[in-house]
Design a protein that fits this description.
This protein is α+β, with helices and mostly antiparallel strands. It has helices spanning 16-29, 62-74, and strands at 6-11, 35-37, 53-57. The protein has one domain: Alpha-Beta Plaits, CATH 3.30.70. The chain has two helices and three strands. The chain has a three-stranded antiparallel beta sheet, covered by helices on one side.
Length: 75
């Protein structure tokens, strides 16, 4: 499903799921399709905090996504 898509953000540790969900929500809300891997299915296991959560966007939207996330960071 994410073949050829670009990783736009990677989160680890406590709150990784929440932060990834926030990025996906922000991107989707601004018309940029985004997916997170692994998905949000609970529970993922006892070592959830060690597993990276990645957010992907289509390659043709990578620059738009980066610009939007940089803009959000500055706000």
């Amino acid at each position: 499903m994410t073949d050829g898509w670009t990783v736009i953000a990677t989160f680890t540790g406590n709150g990784a799921d929440f932060r990834a969900d926030m990025v996906v929500s922000c991107l989707n809300g601004n018309g940029i399709k985004a997916l997170r891997v692994p998905g949000g299915a609970w529970p993922r296991g006892i070592y959830t905090e060690l597993e990276a959560v990645r957010v992907f966007v289509p390659p043709d939207r990578t620059e738009d996504a980066r610009a939007l996330l940089e803009q959000e960071d500055e706000a």
